[in-house]
Amino acid sequence: MNWTIYQTLLWIHIFLAINWVGGLLFVGWGVFPLLKIFPLQDARRTIKAIMKHSHYLFTMIGAGVILTGILLGTWLGPVKSFGMIWQTHYGIVWFSALIIGVLTLIWGTFIGYPYAMRVLSEGTIWEAASTGDYTPLIRSLAGLVFVESVEGAGFIVLLTLMLML
């Protein structure tokens, strides 16, 4: 019975992780570049609407990944005491993944998303770009790429840690 529960929860964990990482990568690497073919203000409104409507979904999915990871490591896994976290390879890797996952979710939710919405809401840089002065917009978007890349780095670290288990 526990093996079936473990496998089901592992499937859910992997499914949610694919949706969390894949969804964010799709928006960043799929939708964002595609907007170059739209008129500037249409592109701005489109990406802002997509981010606004997908943010909470991605946040909930990320929280689901973390919750299922906790259950897989503790309730159905080998971490049965706080001491096991520091005394076993699995415990160290599991706890590291937990911290990186939580920090990645917090970063995306409370830093990355609000920063993106500020860039997309800043009217002056978009108005300047529509008159031909793209420099402020390019600088703001470069800053956005940098801020959002922290989340991508968190995903890379998480994947690396999962491969260590």
Written account of the structure:
By secondary structure, the protein is mostly helical. It has one domain (2-164). 87% of the residues lie in helices and 0% in strands. Helix 2 runs antiparallel to helix 4. The chain is elongated, with a radius of gyration of 19 Å. The two termini are 23 Å apart. The mean pLDDT is 94. This is Copper resistance protein D domain-containing protein. The chain crosses the membrane at residues 12-35, 56-77, 92-116, 137-164. Keywords: Membrane, Transmembrane, Transmembrane helix.
Summarize the structure.
The protein is mainly alpha-helical.
Tell me, rounded to a whole number, the average pLDDT: 94
What is the alpha-carbon Rg in Å?
Answer: 19 Å
Give the number of DSSP strands.
0
Strand content: under 5%
Q: Categorize the overall geometry.
A: elongated
Judged by helices, strands and strand pairing, the structural class is mainly alpha
**Low-confidence blocks of residues:** none
**Count of helical regions:** 6
Question: Number of domains in the coordinates?
Answer: 1
